[in-house]
Structure prediction request, 129 residues.
Amino acid sequence: MLASTVPFAHYGGVRILFLIGGWLSLLLAAIGVILPLLPTVPLVILAAFCFARSSPRLEAWLVSHPQVGPHIRAWRTRGAISRRGKRAALAAFLAGIVASLIFAPWPWPLAPMTAAAICLPWLWSRPDA
Prediction:
């Protein structure tokens, strides 16, 4: 088979990078269960994306998982995010803004404010899962 007809993720090195990225995303998602400011579901969706390109078995495990599978399927089929997830993102942004206003010198609080101004309208424009 010619190299140009082989999807890039089938090459050994790239496949391993996607596998590492998937596990790293899952690790960060697990930490996000404990730390409220770290988004869990987007990291799990990223892990599913990485596993789809590196390990069909791990991707199938995530997609069929009773806790995170519905979120992945909703995102893949409709680009949908649960209303609860949207509220959690809003709360996390607000907590980050308040914390930066309290603890960070000016102009650093502008960073989470800018991120919220860019991300929240897009997030709330997504369909509800």
